[in-house]
Amino acid sequence: MKIGIIGSGNMGRSLGILWAEQGHEVFFGSRTTKKGKEVAEIAGQTTQGGSNDEAAAFGDVLLYTVRGVHPAEVFSSTSVIDNKILIDCNNQEISENFDYPAITQSLAEKLAAEVPNAKVVKAFNTMAQELFELAPIPLKNYNVSVFVAGDDESAKQTVIQLVQEIGFQAINCGELRHARLIESAGDLIRLLMIQQQMGSYATISVRSLPPAETQRLGGRQASNLK
Ligand SMILES: NC(=O)c1ccc[n+]([C@@H]2O[C@H](COP(=O)([O-])OP(=O)(O)OC[C@H]3O[C@@H](n4cnc5c(N)ncnc54)[C@H](OP(=O)(O)O)[C@@H]3O)[C@@H](O)[C@H]2O)c1
């Protein structure tokens, strides 16, 4: 796959290197060509670097790490991302005392509204960069969930493949509007990491369990709550 990284900071550099290790063609984009090239040099392999415009033109899949910046400010023309898969890994800024407003429109939905011709998929916002350092092994042994949501089924399946290749477990969360819940999970995990001192390696994984052999507690009854 051809992957363009938009903003080569912590997330862009880490995911770009991991995908390049899996044999994908990766182009690191940045506000300055110099930085894009420097990151490609660190990443090595066959990666390239340059401007965000060049990264967007290069990739069929783009990782958008630029939180809250309208694509019209990032690219000379947003038409460069028409029909491309745009992975949104962003979380809102951590608010003082973790006192967040309720999410009624996720960052991913906002991005999709800004670039309606791109196929926006939410992924990779519920774990810290430190976890990527463990990928793909030993990370694979821990079944760490990446929650994936998007309205274009084929784009979502492509992202699920990219999630799994680097050692995470993809959880298909359905439509893009469910990114509101995924971004709230991102807020929760940062609360656990930062405020409650669980450390950088805290993350969220979903487990699916087999049913109990007996229902000695009476099983689930119809609820009469309104
Ligand atoms: N770090 C984590 O552990 C982590 C984990 C999960 C999710 N996230 C989320 O992922 C997103 C990126 O986080 P990060 O840690 O990668 O941040 P970061 O290291 O600061 O990288 C973000 C990049 O965005 C680019 N950028 C910043 N302002 C810009 C602007 N006005 N216009 C264009 N480009 C701009 C910069 O790239 P250039 O300097 O290359 O231009 C910068 O390096 C955030 O929304 C964060 O909440 C982060």
From TrEMBL:
<dbReference type="GO" id="GO:0016491">
    <property type="term" value="F:oxidoreductase activity"/>
</dbReference>
<feature type="domain" description="Pyrroline-5-carboxylate reductase catalytic N-terminal">
    <location>
        <begin position="2"/>
        <end position="91"/>
    </location>
</feature>
<protein>
    <submittedName>
        <fullName>F420-dependent NADP oxidoreductase</fullName>
    </submittedName>
</protein>
<keyword id="KW-0560">Oxidoreductase</keyword>
<dbReference type="InterPro" id="IPR051267">
    <property type="entry name" value="STEAP_metalloreductase"/>
</dbReference>
<dbReference type="InterPro" id="IPR036291">
    <property type="entry name" value="NAD(P)-bd_dom_sf"/>
</dbReference>
<dbReference type="Pfam" id="PF03807">
    <property type="entry name" value="F420_oxidored"/>
</dbReference>
<dbReference type="InterPro" id="IPR028939">
    <property type="entry name" value="P5C_Rdtase_cat_N"/>
</dbReference>
